[in-house]
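Hi everyone,

Forwarding the result from last night's run.
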Amino acid sequence: MNNEPTNYEEFWDFYVAEHSQPLTRLLHFAGTSLSLVLLVRIIRNGDWIYFPICLVVGYGFAWFSHFYVEKNKPATFKYPLWSLISDYKMAFYMLTGKMNAEVERVKAK
């Protein structure tokens, strides 16, 4: 996509294209899952001082995958909210077995 996304549907296709490598998606899934587990524990225990660890874990896995696997810049830098939403959407699609089809759909465009 050469143009800037103007709505979420366009952004989702951009996001999927930026996550074309299976290892990138796997690392995102790991970071998203671990950060959710940590967040639940933090909420349960009331240890809010550890909240930044959730961000480090979630973004650490994702950014590593972009810099070293995809070799592109994370969309989070320019589209933080849409990227966060898309991380969870991608994780859901991975759990339901739909993500590979999404990647193929976007590649075919």
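The mean pLDDT is 95.

Cheers,
N.
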